[in-house]
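lol so apparently i was supposed to do this last week
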Amino acid sequence: MVFHLYNTLSRKKEVFRPIKDKQVNVYICGPTVYNFPHIGNYRAYVAGDLLIRYLKYQKYRVKFIQNLTDVDDKTIRDSQEQNKSLKEFTKPFIDGFFEDLRTLNILPAYKYPRATEHIKDMVKTIKKLLDKGLAYKTETGDIYFAINKFKGYGKLAHLNEEQLKSGASGRVSADEYDKENPRDFALWKAWTKEDGNVFWETEIGKGRPGWHIECSSMSSKYLGQPFDIHGGGVDLIFPHHENEIAQAEGAEGRQFVNYWFHNEWLLVDGQKMSKSAGNFYNLRDILNKGYNPLAVRYLLIATHYRQQVNFTFKGLDAARSSLQRLWDFMKKLDECNGEGNDEVVNKAVVNAVKSFEDNLNNDLEIAGALAAVFDFVKEINVVMPSLSKKNVKEIKKIMKLFDSVLGFIIVEEGKIDTSIQKLIDEREAARKAKDFKKADRIRDELKKQGIVLEDTPKGARWKRV
Ligand code: AMP
Ligand code: ZN
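anyway here it is w/ adenosine monophosphate bound
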């Protein structure tokens, strides 16, 4: 089976064919940097990472671009509230985002373009749209996209005639809006006093761009038009991605993107994890409880990207123990020095690689791919004592290959345990401060993760049970 990818545009799994042989251009919408992303947001970035890693596994060169939305309604509102410049306000969130990406072992993009540094490109696109009669300026200086002038409007979200008619009646200036009600949307927002010192003096007036134009201008600037894959969470299908299509295809008169890739929600108690619902966890909240970041990565990846997944700490514990099985396996391999068992190893390798690839070729069917890895580990475990150094080399090579896609099998020595050590240090500090309640709580927390502590005169020692 060749690689098939579900395309939101056609609502079908399609054979993946890149525009240029062996080169794939990918854009995944990045964060709006007005706060620290929660782990729901990271589901979108981890899903993109899985896709990109699997494309690389298939020997494609991948050019991956991810935007930073550093000007929009929310960044302006919050920076004004805190009396900070936009740049000063967004900096810690941008730094935090990059740190989290590294922590979750997400491969870096080729470039992270910032909206504020691409105003000229956006103005150029807006001018084209005005010239073609697809956009209009209002008396206040705002510029809107006229959705009834663009024939393909609604093709990604599959909006029907009724929805389009009901939407043709109004305008919306907010960056995010009601999914049921398509409207003419703002390409350019004329300066108002609420914007304070956030504005650009341009040929189309004094103001700032709308959110949607940021992504379509920056993606085609770096990736060309059309380019191969554009992704994000399902909430971005409408209006954000629908509007991106309208802008890019309206301005250039040709296809914008070939494959649309959308991930489903990370839920908490059956509800979408979101800032506004208040049911969110930042990565740091979780790491501070002593969890390993790779367990978070595992949890976010292990359910198919088009299925919803519920976040629980129990789920995180289960992810942690699955990882432990893999890590223990890798460690045990080093102790093998037997006469060898080529037949079993060769057969297991061939089967595992085939099943791993067959599953991922089926729209990144991750459950099957993980089963291939764990079955392989199980089969090899049975013959473990007899493995030769040569067998071990071969097995490690395959695990490394799997890890190039999964990103959680091979970890530097010591990295696994940094979060545990952090908790142990915290417990020591609590004991010194005679806060025995806290110290006991941390001991219990560690116990839940299978770690028991032994207090010695030289400090606490730990072992896994
Ligand atoms: P935002 O910064 O709100 O634009 O979101 C960044 C990315 O995270 C977008 O692709 C969203 O669709 C995605 N996203 C937000 N919340 C969740 C969630 N609970 N589960 C999965 N993806 C999400
Ligand atoms: Zn976007």
